[in-house]
Write a structure and sequence with these properties.
- With about 1550 residues, the protein is mainly beta.
- The chain has 9 helices and 102 strands.
- About 10% of the residues lie in helices and about 40% in strands.
- The protein is elongated and about 190 Å long.
């Protein structure tokens, strides 16, 4: 809140000005005429005089609650209290003002008569010289840069000439550069002041005087010089002129843009800025600026930053807190006194740390600082919608530390707390947090540094001078005459602060106190008992303050204190008077009546009566709520000390209710009674002055003038204008219109041709007539005869947005030689003279949409009218318009009324006042009382409703809200949009029941069929009926009809659906005026499908009465590629049986099915094509039987194989190289392999087909590809691809380079070894393991031998070679049949016989045990001398395959003896075959390698299993040490 007053010095100057400036006085006749025609507004005369005085000399703004003198206080109280005092007080004040005005008018009339006499003398002298003539001409000036210059001249002539100033040939406009130029005319002396000159101001300036008899011109040159060392134009003298010291208070300062009411948030930052013009503007002499908050001057600090210079004064608050809220005032010292401006800063609470927590306390300060004690006080926060505050926590932090320590364990309920236990000499910071039921608030702003020191210490210091030059500092407790050992007793012990939670004791230190350090002991007792109890046993008190806590409420206590030092303790002090804890005062009473009155369009003035019981009140909190709402919002966030407050940032046009609470240290009072609702509207006042008077036409005897509306309407619609005229050469004003003019245009008749006239206009509203406008520029009454049209007028703007606006204007009054055919619109940025024509072709209508504007930029416009003769004179420049939309701006929206079906356009205004009106236009022509549309307004919204819309109503519609800052909007009604709204309107006026779903059917369990539809909305009174084949069906046997109004569903259920139900089904609905129907044709194939589904569901229901499959058979594939057939069963019991079948043959799984688990499975391992077939599962008990079939063939079989391939492909190893006697083999190990999998082998990206050269095969553990008899053609990359139907798994191997060389060598070695194995000597068959024979019998050991070449045969007995004899005959017939015959065997022939068959490729050694017994003896048990299995003597047993173990057993190779091994019996490549040479029979037999060894192991490389030897048993190969070859591929992972 701020008010304007005028200093006494200014009043004195204005009186002198009124006595001498004859152009600013009104004639007595004019005053009398105004008093007659505006008798209802005589009270405004004083306001007009004050306004003229304010315009004559600048006023300054001071805070509303600053200290005033007695006269100002009386005047302020009179103005502020008359608002609510009623009409009688106002009339009394008006009567006093009338008397005062009459006295002033009489005085002015006397002064005017004297000046008229002086003017007559001048006029008589002027009759001699009619042409303008310069008595004192302009003279040239040379000035330094950044200094002002003043050009002046004196001119005479009759009639009085009009003087204009030019720079070169360009007219000087002071408004184009505010503060740069100042044009004055005082006492006939015309002057031009150029402030703060720059080098570019160097030019020829001229003053041109003109009247009706001619023109005279005076010219002078201004040269601006720059000091030496500067850039640009050099100084002619090369010296800096000596400037006299200028004090800042000697500067001339004019405030321009001023900071407004500002809103901030805790933790943010804000800046308050005032721009100004300073004359002279010297960089080394900045203006003197002072900033105040609530009348207290601010000083620069880390929380307050100030700067002044470069045409502005700035105050920055970088870290906002609620402590910063208040009325801020900028005071600038000028040569005329001071220039001031004030505005309020509001700081809102930051977001709470916990929802519902209170705001932070504020204004935390430390008082009564002692050595170990500080009293901390603060102000409570406002609580509007939060829970009441239950207490506060006080925190302290030692300077230099980052740790906050909580001072009180439990919340303190008052806004004061004694912090004790401090360290003497330490510096502390304090902060406070509020607590309520929801949580703890954010901390307050911390205090400044508080140092714990004894405040009386400096008072006890004395300085004694010795010999006039030595200073001795002593303490007053030093005894110069003797020592004081034991201190005296403290005195004046009393309770300084008494509250319910604590009290603070205070006393005066003893005197004398002694030089030793002093501390205190405190005792308490119940009043009157004398039972003293020490209360500070653990703490030494060094300060004469001590807080006492934990006292019982209702009890009275007494206290006493002892002084103690190292010499002893003093006597006890005098006890205090009985003290009882408690809150003696409590919160204040509620404030009195609250009255809210209109202030501005966004603020309300609230004033109230103070509480009857203030009780140490700190201030007030004001809350507001919108009428009809229950949510209160805080208006201020820091206690306000006065009983009047302006609430800002309210929604214009909204209605609010206010309440007030008083605040003291105990908290907030009860709320006051609520104020009466008040609408946010400007306070009623007279309008401001019109402006922009311009000439529109002149015929030689009359002139048509127009003007612009006042910028401030005064809270009431401007309904009257009064125009005055005068001859530019006279002082007296003449009334033009006795009755009010409502339009902003007026034709003034009976004028004299060739005479210059001036005009001024006053606006009036309900409050009266406002101040007059400034006189217009002199206008010559001269008939317009040009052929071009005159200027357009009344430029206005609509729909101002960030990048576009609409310019509107009125047609020129003077049309020229022909009618106006169009208009051209020019635009320029504010401050620029470069105008751009927006439309190259003239537009016939009087509006133009302007787009592509820069948001935030200001522009000016002018309009030129065009007729057949050419382009006419440009209109007066428009007011500057900023391309920026108002906050909350909305556009016009089209719609259809849901109740009536009317088509309308509506706008919700973001701003409105009591006098605002919505003015609708079509193509920017007001619609008025057009019968095609109707306008209705409610609150902030206005609606334009079409009666019978058609194509004639298409176009651009706009609306303007009057008495606002340009609230407007537009909407183009297109044909498509109108058609859409017409369709919707028809639907509303001819309503139907909207359906979300039309009539449909569904088959339910048991075979029931449900017919249903769903409406969007059904009322309780809705009715309906079902019609089947033109017959209404009602609810009864076989049919159930129902509806649910909540969901809008109407349904009919047919219990038994048969062929008789084929036909057409219809539902008809009636709901109030709305109706609808929906049909469903259920015939033909559609009916057959429904009937089939119903029968199926009926059978399903019967099936599910016994044991049944809830899920029929399906398959899954386990991680080990085992195919699992599974099904789920339901409604089973222990007696229920389950069986599996394949192709009608029962399958008995290893684990019996468990029906009680609800799921039965059949594993199918090693799945392949042989597992195709029809699988069946049966479920039965005494209640029934159910069957599930699953045909594994076709696509199902392919799906299973793909599932297996997906798992196998993911587990596939890298390709491994394996050499065989037939060639080179590539192997890929995987979880499971079957030939049905889609496996492709590729060589160099070409597919390989199985052939004699390239053999493709596999086992359950791996897939392989063998290159038979490899050659260089088979080198290259090999790839195996396993496709699972969705993706392809690929593995590659590079068979080239060294890998191929090593593999080929191994292949040749294995091939040679196989050939030797095939052709070596061996025993094919015929020899037993054990022979038992009676003596004297003949023994014949015969066998078949084979070898290529024919082997040699040697027989042994007990490892000794047997030679052929009569007793023992050895024969070899045909190289194939070898025999050993012993005739007449004796016991000596018993022993171990053996045969060694060998050739150059190797041989075989077979043993036979012979036992001879005597006749008559019992036949002995046979004794085996050697295991029965025959092993090749020359080749050790190869190790087993290193491939991954398989759960599926592999088929064993055939044991039938064959001359050559099969393909599957080829030796492993990792163990080389023995070199073919003969081995003696006595050579020891080596052990076979470990069968379980895997390929990656260095000593055992074979990755494939080796079959058993096909040779007869008991044979032993010749021993040969194994040779190993490292695999050319990396080992399998």
């Amino acid at each position: 809140m701020a008010s304007k007053v005028t200093a006494p010095l200014q009043k004195k100057k204005r009186v002198n000005h009124i006595n001498t400036d004859y152009r600013s006085l009104h004639s007595k006749h004019v005053v009398q005429q105004h008093s007659v025609r505006k008798s209802s507004s005589t009270s405004v005369r004083q306001v007009q005089v004050q306004a003229r005085e304010a315009m004559a000399e600048p006023a300054y703004t001071i805070p509303a609650f600053r200290q005033r003198n007695a006269e100002e206080v009386e005047e302020y109280q009179r103005v502020s209290t008359h608002v609510g005092k009623g009409l009688a007080a106002i009339q009394e004040e008006l009567h006093r003002m009338r008397i005062q005005t009459k006295t002033q008018v009489d005085n002015l009339a006397i002064q005017r008569e004297v000046q008229e006499m002086m003017t007559k003398k001048v006029d008589l002298y002027g009759e001699v010289r009619k042409l303008p003539d310069f008595l004192v001409a302009l003279r040239p000036h040379a000035v330094w840069e950044k200094t002002p210059v003043k050009l002046f001249c004196t001119v005479q002539g009759h009639p009085r000439p009009l003087v204009k100033w030019f720079k070169g040939d360009v007219p000087i406009d002071p408004l184009s550069a505010p503060g740069k130029y100042k044009i004055e005319n005082k006492y006939g002396v015309h002057s031009l002041i150029i402030s703060r000159c720059v080098v570019s101001d160097t030019a020829e300036y001229s003053a041109r005087a003109t009247n009706q008899y001619g023109t005279a011109t005076s010219t002078a040159t201004v040269t601006v010089k720059r000091a030496a060392g500067g850039t640009g134009v050099s100084c002619q003298l090369g010296l800096v002129p000596h400037l006299t010291d200028i004090h800042p208070s000697k500067l001339e300062i004019t405030l321009l843009e001023r900071f407004r009411v500002t809103f901030g948030v805790e933790g943010g930052s804000t800046s308050l800025v005032c721009t100004m013009v300073v004359v002279p503007d010297l960089p080394n002499v900045p203006p003197l600026a002072q900033w105040y908050r609530d009348d207290k001057q601010l000083k620069p600090s880390p929380l307050v930053e100030m700067s002044v210079g470069r045409g502005s004064a700035r105050l920055t608050l970088p870290h906002l807190a609620k402590d910063d809220e208040g009325l801020y005032t900028l005071r600038m010292f000028t040569k005329d006194g001071t220039a001031e401006h004030s505005a309020y800063l509001f700081v809102e609470d930051a977001a709470p740390s916990v929802p519902g927590a209170p705001g932070a306390p504020m204004s935390v300060k430390a008082f009564d600082i002692n050595k170990d004690y500080v009293l901390v006080a603060w102000k409570p926060p406002n609580t509007t919608n939060e829970a009441p505050i239950s207490g506060y926590f006080v925190d302290r932090r030692e300077a230099g530390s980052d740790t906050w320590v909580q001072c009180n364990d439990s919340p303190v309920k008052v806004c004061k707390y004694p912090a004790h236990g401090l360290s003497a000499g330490s510096t502390y910071h304090f902060r406070v947090r509020a607590v309520n039921s929801a949580g703890i608030s954010r901390p307050s702003r911390k205090t400044g540094g508080v140092t714990a020191l004894d405040p009386a210490e400096s008072q006890r210091l004395q300085v004694v001078k010795i010999a006039g030059k030595y200073d001795i500092v002593i303490r007053d407790d030093d005894d110069l005459e003797g020592d004081v050992a034991v201190p005296g007793a403290p005195s004046h012990v009393h309770a300084l602060e008494v509250f319910s939670s604590y009290l603070v004791l205070s006393w005066t230190p003893p005197s004398p106190r002694g030089p030793a350090p002093l501390w205190y002991l405190v005792e308490k007792c119940l009043a009157g008992t004398g039972a003293w109890q020490r209360i500070n046993t653990a703490v030494k008190l060094h300060s004469p303050r001590y807080p006492v806590f934990d006292l019982e409420n209702g009890q009275k206590y007494q206290f006493r204190v002892f002084s103690v030092n190292l010499y002893g303790s003093s006597e006890a002090s005098e006890p205090t008077a009985p003290v009882q804890t408690g809150d003696a005062h409590g919160v204040p009473s509620a404030p009195g009546q609250v009255v809210a009155t209109r202030n501005t369009k966004s603020s309300v003035l609230v004033h109230w009566d103070p509480p009857r019981q203030p009780k140490g009140m700190m201030g007030y909190y004001i809350d507001a709520r919108a009428a009809g709402s229950k949510t209160w919002l805080p208006c201020n966030h820091k206690p306000f000390k006065h009983t009047k407050f302006v609430v800002h940032a309210l929604v214009p046009g909204e209605t609010y209710v206010f309440r007030v609470q008083a605040v003291n240290v105990f908290g907030l009072s009860e709320e006051s009674q609520e104020s009466s609702p008040v609408a946010v509207e400007p306070a009623l006042a007279t309008p401001s002055a019109p402006f922009g008077i311009t000439l529109l036409s002149c015929d030689g005897s009359s002139m048509t003038v127009a003007w612009k509306s006042p910028k401030v309407c005064g809270g009431s619609k401007v309904n009257a204008y009064y125009v005055d005229q005068r001859d530019a050469d006279t002082l007296g004003w003449k009334e033009v219109n006795a009755s009010a003019v409502r339009e902003r245009i007026c034709t003034v008749e009976n004028l004299k041709e060739g005479t210059f006239y001036e005009f001024k206009v006053q606006a009036g509203n309900l409050a009266g007539v406002g101040v007059p406008s400034a006189p217009s520029a002199p206008m010559k009454c001269e008939a317009w005869t040009m052929a071009e049209p005159g200027p357009a007028s009344d430029l206005s703007f609509s729909e101002v947005r960030g990048h576009s606006l609409v310019v509107l204007w009125k047609a020129p009054v003077y049309s020229g030689a022909g009618p106006v055919t169009g208009y051209l619109v020019d635009m320029a940025k504010l401050g620029s003279s470069d105008f751009v024509t927006l439309n190259q072709e003239a537009v016939a209508h009087r509006y133009l949409q302007v787009s592509h504007l820069e948001e935030g930029e200001s522009y000016v416009f002018r309009v030129r009218s065009v007729n057949s003769s050419g382009v006419g004179k440009a209109s007066q420049l428009s007011e500057p318009v900023c391309a920026k939309a108002l906050p909350g701006t909305k556009e016009i929206a089209g719609g259809v009324d849901e109740e009536t079906g009317d088509i309308f356009l509506s706008l919700e205004a973001c701003e409105i006042c009591e006098t605002s009106q919505f003015v609708w236009s079509k193509n920017y022509t007001p619609v008025g009382d057009c019968p095609r549309v109707a306008v209705s307004t409610k609150g902030r919204s206005s609606r334009l409703t079409f009666a019978n819309p058609d194509k004639d109503d298409l176009g651009r519609y706009s609306v303007v809200v009057t008495d606002t800052d340009g609230v407007s909007g537009s909407h183009t009604l297109t044909e498509d949009a109108l058609n859409s709204m017409l369709e919707l309107s028809y639907a509303i006026r001819h309503p139907i029941v909207p359906l979300k779903h039309g009539l449909n059917y569904e088959v339910l369990e048991k075979g029931h069929v449900r017919f249903w539809l769903q409406a969007v909305k059904l009322s309780a009174a809705a009715s309906y009926r079902f019609i089947v084949n033109d017959k209404e069906v009602t609810s009864g046997e076989g049919h159930k009809i129902s509806h649910d109004a909540a969901t809008g569903i109407i349904q009919m259920t047919v219990d038994h659906f048969t062929r008789a139900n084929e036909g057409t089904y219809t539902v008809q609905i009636h709901d109030g005026k709305a109706k609808n129907q929906s049909s469903l044709v259920l015939v033909g194939d559609v009916f057959k499908a429904a009937l089939k589904e119903a029968e199926f569901q009926r059978k399903e229901h019967i099936r599910k009465q016994g044991p049944h499959f809830s899920e029929y058979l399906y398959f899954t594939v386990a991680d080990d590629c085992t195919v699992m057939l599974a099904c789920k069963v339901a409604n089973v019991k222990k007696e229920t049986t389950f069986h599996w079948f394949k192709d009608e043959d029962e399958v008995v799984p290893d684990a019996a099915p468990s029906v009680m688990s609800g799921c039965c499975t059949l594993p199918v391992p090693l799945f392949s094509r042989k597992d195709q077939g029809v699988y069946k599962a049966t479920l039965s008990d005494d209640r029934g039987k159910d069957t599930s079939l699953f045909d594994i063939s076709g696509q199902v079989f392919d799906d299973i194989i793909n599932a297996i391939a997906q798992i196998a492909g993911s587990s596939a190893s890298e390709l491994v190289l394996q050499c065989t006697p037939e060639g080179i083999r590539l192997q890929c190990y995987m979880t499971y392999y079957t030939e049905e999998m889609k496996t492709v082998w590729k060589h160099r990206d070409s597919k390989i087909a199985s052939s004699e050269k390239m053999r493709i095969g596999g086992t359950a553990e791996m897939a392989w590809m063998q290159i038979c008899d490899p050659s260089d053609k088979e080198k290259g990359h090999y790839t195996i691809e396993i496709c699972d139907g969705a993706q392809t798994h690929a593995r590659t191997f590079d068979l080239s380079g060294q890998a191929y060389t090593d593999a080929y060598e191994e292949y040749l070695r294995l091939k040679a070894a196989a050939f030797a194995e095939k052709n070596r000597g061996r025993v094919v068959g015929g020899l037993p393991d054990v022979v038992t024979i009676m003596e004297k019998k003949s023994l014949s050991l015969t066998c078949t031998v084979w070898g290529e070449p024919t082997p040699e045969v040697t027989w042994f007995k007990n490892e000794q070679e047997v030679a052929s004899s009569e007793h023992t005959k050895i024969t070899l017939e045909a190289g194939k049949f070898a025999s050993l015959v012993i005739t007449q065997v004796t016991p000596e022939d018993s022993g171990k016989y053996s045969i060694n068959v060998r050739n150059k490729y190797g041989g075989e050694f077979v043993e036979i045990t012979v036992s001879v017994y005597k006749q008559g003896e019992q036949m002995p048990e046979p004794k085996l001398g050697q295991p029965k299995g025959a092993t090749p003597a020359s080749t050790p047993m190869p190790p087993k395959s290193p491939g991954p173990p398989s759960k599926t057993p592999t088929p064993a190779p055939s044991k039938t003896p064959t001359p050559a091994p099969s393909k599957s019996q080829t030796p492993a490549p990792s163990v080389k075959s023995p070199t073919p040479f003969s081995t003696p029979a006595s050579t020891p037999i080596p052990k076979s390698p470990t069968p379980g060894c895997r390929s990656p192991t260095p000593g055992c490389k074979s990755p494939t299993p080796t079959p058993k030897s096909p040779t007869p048993p008991r044979s032993v190969k010749s021993p040969t040490p194994p040779r190993f070859m490292k695999s050319p591929t990396p080992p399998r992972k």
